Amino acid sequence: MSYEEVLKIAARRGIFFKSSELYPNSPAGFWEYGPYGVRIKENFVNFLRKKLKEVDAIEIDGACIMPKEVFEASSHLKNFVDPIVECKQCKQVYRIDKLIEEKTGKPVPERLKKEEFEKLIKREKIRCPKCKGQFSEVKFFNLMFRVDVGVKGQECYLRPETCQAIFLDFKRVFKVMRRKLPCVVLQVGKSFRNEISPRQSLLRMREFYQAEVEVFFNPKTKKFPPIEKFKSFKLRFWEDGKVREISVEKALKNKEVSNELIAFFLAFIQNFYEELGFPREKLRLRKLKENEKAFYAKEAWDLEVLTSLGWVELVACNNRGDYDLKVHSKHSGEDLEVMDGEEKVLPHVFELSIGIDRSILSLLDLSFKVDKSRKLLSLKPIMAPVKLCVFPLVAKDGLPEKAKEVCSLLEDFDYVYEEKDSIGRRYYRYDEIGVPFAITIDHQSLEDDTVTLRDRDSTEQIRVKIKELPQILKKLLSCEVSFEELKGKLEK
What we know:
Number of helices: 16
Low-confidence stretches: none
Structural class: alpha+beta
Number of strands: 26
Number of domains: 2
CATH architecture of the largest domain: 2-Layer Sandwich
CATH topology of the largest domain: BirA Bifunctional Protein, domain 2
CATH class of the largest domain: Alpha Beta
Mean pLDDT: 94
């Protein structure tokens, strides 16, 4: 199973690992990124920022701790709950919706009532996975982390998602940045949820990274000019147990998506993951049914990917209507309407709520390959934590000095230099973290100023003139040309 192998590589190579692992009683659900993991995460976020420039997005960085009143207004203190049961025999606590999903293979609607859960437990004969004991009655557990602030202990909470600061700050940033509708706002940062049963490393955590894109728009506006880019793009809609591909243009004509803006961002996020290296055939947009949607959502889709762990939700795509600005306007007493031309409106919101950690884990899982005696992560250059390796064949005979000359030409590239261990060991070590290309300086390099350029996936090598390296590497790393195409041209 590639997931288990990825966990081993992640720990061995410092990509990610358990938090506070020196202490046996450290709580579950907390993980840390090592040096290479930080780079992969930053690659993901920076590529998202780059793509969002297409819609002139702005970014904020809000507080992680907010007062109780914010979450009373947003209904988190009332509705941000998970259904739990306790085994009468071993006293283990479980999320019952997840146990039901594992038994039936079908998602459990989000807004089921206590009585409906108990009927499912009885019908599906759900027992404690640990001891096969029976469960107590279903209860609902609030996932918010409470924090007492100051000497007198003002009741505050760690944010369970990054979007609330965007809603609270919207009118200010809209004004000071001289924006007009639609207005796209991004926030990237940590969120905190007191998960009942965190599991599968980065998939379900108590402290995790999110990127949330909130698009504020006037619902009366029908046209969204950027849609032209994606009119022929094929959305992968999941329905009746299979994927149906449909162009954005046709989905709009059939009224399967309510407006051009929402259609654009559904295509945008699917295309974003495809460009990151997620196989298109393993992605799907699953439209949520009425009893699956969050209470505030008018329409909703989950972008999911098929991994060795099954289908994993990557992005929640929600048409939140005017819910958020309306409730915060009501509870704060502040008018959050803005001008759209000559009209004063309370904007509606379309949201892309992106799970960064689970996206990274899913990509590593899908990129993992075994090739004879080596294991590798077949990452696209854009996501690789290091782009190039520079290796002298041996640490003598003037090869390290020649290698340093090569390095002087690579100042604009993200590379590592290493001369320890055999060349084979060095290749395999960096294959495991996904470095796409390796440059080797050998004795021939001293004679004719050429080096070998090795491709990670195929392990094939070509001979390249040192002075031509920067130009060739730019084309390879930008995917302007493939290694196979380059090899063919050089052989001619």
